Amino acid sequence: MILTQCAVCAAELGLSLGKKCGRCSTRYCGPECQKQHWEGGGHDKICKLIKKAGGAEAYNANKKYTAAVAVAATACAEDTKGQTCYICTQALHWKTKEGLVRGCSCRGTAGFAHVSCLAEEAKILYDEAEENNLDNKVLNERFGRWHTCSLCEQNYHGVVECALGWACWKTYVGRPETDWARKFAMTLLANGLSAVDHHEDSLHVQEAELSMRRRLGASEGDLLVVQGNLAGTYNQLGRHEEALSIKRDVYFGCLRLNGEEHEATIIEALNYAMTLASLQRFEEARSLLRKTIPVVRRSRGENSENTLRMRGLYATAVYLDEGATLDDLREAVTTLEETERTARRVLGGAHPLTTLTEGHLGLAREALRTRESTGDVESLREAVEAMTPPGDA
Prior knowledge:
It comes from Pelagomonas calceolata. This protein has about 400 residues and is mostly helical. The protein has three domains: about 1-50, no CATH class; about 55-175, no CATH class; about 260-393, Tetratricopeptide repeat domain (Serine Threonine Protein Phosphatase 5, Tetratricopeptide repeat). About 65% of the residues lie in helices and about 0% in strands. Helix 5 packs across helix 7, helix 14 (about 305-320) runs antiparallel to helix 15 (about 325-345) and helix 15 (about 325-345) packs antiparallel against helix 16.
């Protein structure tokens, strides 16, 4: 997580409170904790190292990044065995000696890379756009390389998304708070932490980001995006009622500002529906999705990830509803079968959405069999409580 707590007592300091070490900027709630850390906490031995690394925030980001890369390489070791990086053409990174990863939708022998190579490539492309004063559209496209594979054009996920989140934050943390890349690096870091279920850490980053953007006078649209991400993390932590209130406001805010076909509106409609489903307000979720699925199909196509998420979530809200008829359950199974096939073809069998949809398909089929034989699906509810509906964006 980013550093918004006292290094000794963990008191919450936000982004501006407390006292900093004059040399390395390590943060404390006051002089007593600072003195304790220097005299008995070992800070006297690492203060110069922290300063050399660029300060406390950069030092922390470097440590977290290194750990995240090691986790990602270990998790991908079986998949990457015998392969080489498509960027540097080596199996082991020449400098860091890190192993390969692949956390996108590439298949066969495509997409293997080192996190360091992916990060360096993203940095070079974005730096080039900045140096040449290219327009915002190009800057956004170049920055997208931090989270989207250039080969399959799908988002990274899981441990690779987390490692790239730390890589991005490590790269831009030294810039001023007002810098665009630094602000969006916080967003990518929070998303990466959520991707590996570190939701408390992600919440910590998102709260700090929202506080910073408010203090800097961010636009309503930017604030809505951050609030939407924050509510998604509330959902992951089981704080569904808190999430619902925010999600409702964010969705209608995006709809008013951007219109129904804007990417932000589509994502927030999906997240709002997911929150409704989490609270078992299935009819409300289906009503919203019936309005938005035609929009996303028309504007993004049948194969887009958000189309697949919406269709999967709609079918999930159907089969979990106690009031679903036999025809409803059959429709849910058919929809999940179509969604799973498309997700497997477009995203690959290892993608989280594919595996999640496959799980819900099995439960929907069981619900249909149970209803046909006994008319009761209550026994399935415990099986799905631990599962995330396919709408989580």
